[in-house]
């Protein structure tokens, strides 16, 4: 089985470093030489050394598809570069290595009263990966993508030299969302968000169908810093798109009960046991997922306000189960995330109806309203509606079905998220990302030898 | 690169006029395949096959390849791999021979064995090494149900396929963990030019059915694929039939 994090922490580089590498979805495994530099100099030496098949940086391997794989070449495991260099508790900034995880930042920064500006559904991503994929979170409608909070990036380019990329420059805009193909991100300076407590004040409500959901999101999203909806994609008919909306804020100190006020910035995420390494494929069927979805919908209160929740359970519920991706068995799974602009509600409705009619067993589907876009050339979020769903890769006919959805998305001027992609038809890419030509030109200039390459870049011709 | 469903973008068909090979190519072009190499003896049929695939929208090129000329394999196949990654190699060449005649014509029988087995060993090893260098790819080997147990009626062909089958299985085990996937496909009686005029055996199938099975096998990363799938059960039973009985069976 492919390793999600190919090398144990403290081993020297092995003699035969070629190991199988896959993304979080555990599909399309390929082999690469995994190197784990311990310093920026080692990373630079490795880049200068790369042969014809090149290399790509990898963090904690949470990209679902093949973004951090490089068949026959090198994968630079950046997790040993994990130093936090400086925290400015006055201005609220942190300078840290690319291999530092958001989990680590939370451990260090929360007790100081600061929180990461953007967090995705997992804390186990690195800062380098967050910049490279220009990740977004539940606060996108307010705070934008990760790159909006980055003040500078140190980038190791193809010639082995280090450049400082600043917002507003081409290099910065190509690197944020650039999937690691402009160079190896070595470190970044990030602006933080001030918090009084480590608890969230959460409002939950049920939406009876998709139109109800979109109406609620459009009407009241601006009142919340964080907002996301879990959507039941197996519900059909009048219940099509029924959802549970959870929206929240960082709880102020005076909202806490007296006991919690003694240690308001505590951060102690719990962990459940991991699923076994070998799980039979086919556990997640229409029946089991349908039952789960029914339970999950009924379990949610019709409407409840001001419930206090810890950061892990509000933002990262799946992080409680290490290796949760194993539950899909050896076939793995595909994550499909797209965005269509405002005014394309009909497209969204049509896609949701098609997924429901197709009976895709998806229990981790979320819908969110994006705010303003950021300038990254290959940055994913644009204002509009985004839907993300997990589907077992072994589902028969799935490839053709997702191709049809792509046509709908592309036809509506939307796009799919490269950090999650493992199957897009390459011909559609340029239409989805209008700055792709600029990206390719800059890459040709910056990296004439094509040193930076990944399975994703080969598959899509990035 | 192959996508999450194992669908290749580039394809090398060894035996570029093979009906099964072309059926697989057509099916994969309809999905993701954009680059197709057809390797075979230069002849009008090969060019016609290439033209047919081009009409489907693929970038098709031909390369001169003769299974019997093993000394030239390294150069001709090596050239293909220098032009870009090959996501899947389909080893589709083979000859049926004429058992009744070949039993009395040993040089003809040897040609069957050399094409189906020796040629495949040479081409298979060269392609496997190239795939290993690129760190990914599938080698799909067209074996045959005839190789599972030699029959009186076509044991020359059967034995060559038995050798090929064993070779491909071993190669698959040798390459396990290298990112290269070897898949052995064992079709039953396939209705093609090669079998035209022969009475169809039970569970006969078509090139299109073999192509569908190959696509499914790629998605599942299967190591052995039977076409049709029920042959797996039928052959498991036949394998255990005692010799005196087996040689009298009308199969």
From TrEMBL, chain B:
The keyword Nucleus does not apply. InterPro entries: NAD(P)-bd_dom_sf, Sc_DH/Rdtase_CS, SDR_fam. The keyword Metal-binding does not apply. It comes from the Bacteria. Keywords: Oxidoreductase. One of its GO terms (molecular function) is oxidoreductase activity. Pfam families: adh_short. Belongs to the short-chain dehydrogenases/reductases (SDR) family. This is Short-chain dehydrogenase. The lineage of its organism: Bacteria, Bacillati, Actinomycetota, Actinomycetes, Kitasatosporales.
């Amino acid at each position: 089985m492919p390793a999600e994090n190919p090398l144990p922490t403290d081993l020297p580089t092995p003699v035969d470093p070629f190991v199988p590498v896959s993304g979080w979805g555990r599909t399309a495994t390929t082999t690469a030489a995994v190197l784990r530099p311990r310093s920026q100099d080692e990373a630079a030496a490795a880049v200068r050394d790369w042969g014809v098949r090149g290399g790509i940086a990898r963090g904690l391997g949470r990209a679902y598809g093949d973004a951090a794989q490089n068949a026959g070449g090198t994968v630079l495991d950046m997790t040993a570069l994990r130093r936090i260099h400086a925290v400015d508790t006055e201005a609220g900034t942190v300078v840290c290595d690319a291999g530092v995880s958001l989990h680590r930042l939370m451990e260090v920064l929360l007790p100081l009263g600061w929180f990461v500006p953007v967090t995705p559904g997992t804390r186990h991503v690195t800062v380098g990966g967050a910049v490279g994929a220009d990740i977004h979170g539940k606060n996108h409608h307010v705070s934008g993508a990760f790159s909006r909070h980055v003040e500078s990036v140190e980038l190791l380019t193809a010639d082995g030299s280090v450049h400082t990329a600043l917002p507003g420059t081409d290099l910065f805009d190509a690197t944020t969302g650039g999937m690691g193909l402009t160079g190896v991100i070595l470190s970044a300076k990030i602006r933080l968000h001030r918090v009084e407590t480590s608890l969230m004040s959460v409002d939950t409500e049920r939406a009876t169908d998709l139109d109800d959901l979109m109406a609620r999101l459009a009407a009241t999203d601006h009142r919340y810093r964080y907002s996301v909806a879990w959507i039941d994609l197996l519900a059909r008919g009048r219940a099509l798109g029924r959802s549970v909306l959870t929206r929240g804020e960082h709880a102020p100190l005076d909202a806490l009960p007296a006991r919690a006020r003694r240690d308001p910035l505590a951060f102690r995420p719990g962990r459940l046991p991991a699923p076994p390494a070998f799980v039979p494929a086919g556990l997640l069927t229409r029946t089991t997922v349908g039952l789960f979805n029914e339970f999950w919908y009924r379990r949610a209160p019709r409407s409840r306000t001001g419930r206090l929740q810890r950061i892990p359970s509000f933002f990262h519920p799946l992080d409680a189960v290490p290796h949760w991706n194993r539950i899909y068995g050896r076939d793995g799974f595909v994550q499909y995330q797209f965005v269509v602009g405002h005014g394309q509600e009909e497209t969204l409705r049509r896609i949701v109806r098609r997924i429901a009619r197709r009976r895709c067993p998806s229990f981790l589907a979320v819908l969110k309203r994006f705010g303003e876009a950021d300038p990254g050339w290959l940055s994913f979020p644009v204002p509009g509606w985004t839907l993300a769903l997990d589907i077992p890769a072994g589902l028969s006919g799935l490839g053709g079905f997702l191709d049809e959805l792509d046509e709908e998305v592309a036809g509506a001027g939307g796009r799919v998220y490269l950090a999650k992609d493992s199957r897009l038809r390459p011909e559609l890419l340029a239409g989805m990302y209008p700055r792709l030509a600029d990206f390719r030109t800059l890459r040709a200039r910056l990296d004439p030898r094509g040193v930076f390459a990944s399975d994703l870049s080969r598959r899509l011709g990035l | 690169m192959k996508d999450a469903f194992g669908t290749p973008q580039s394809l090398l068909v060894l035996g570029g006029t093979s009906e099964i090979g072309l059926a697989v190519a057509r099916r994969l072009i309809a999905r993701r395949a954009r680059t197709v190499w057809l390797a075979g003896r230069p002849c009008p049929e090969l060019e016609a096959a290439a033209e047919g695939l081009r009409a489907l929208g693929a970038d098709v090129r031909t390369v001169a390849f003769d299974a019997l000329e093993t000394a030239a394999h390294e150069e001709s196949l090596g050239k293909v791999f220098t032009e870009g990654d090959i996501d899947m190699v389909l080893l589709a060449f083979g000859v049926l021979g004429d058992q009744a005649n070949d039993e009395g014509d040993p040089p003809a029988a040897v040609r069957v064995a050399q094409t189906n087995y020796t040629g495949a060993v040479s081409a298979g090893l060269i392609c496997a090494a190239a795939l290993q260098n690129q760190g990914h790819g599938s080698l799909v080997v067209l074996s045959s149900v005839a190789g599972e147990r030699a029959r009186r009626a076509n044991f020359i062909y059967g034995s060559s396929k038995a050798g090929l089958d064993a070779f491909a299985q071993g190669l698959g085990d040798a390459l396990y963990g290298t990112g290269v996937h070897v898949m052995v496909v064992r079709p039953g009686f396939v209705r093609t030019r090669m079998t035209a005029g022969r009475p169809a055996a039970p569970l006969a199938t078509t090139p299109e059915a073999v192509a569908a099975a190959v696509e499914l096998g790629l998605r599942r990363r299967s190591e052995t694929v039977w076409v049709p799938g029920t042959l797996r059960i039928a052959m498991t039973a036949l394998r255990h039939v005692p010799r005196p009985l087996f040689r009298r069976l009308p199969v």
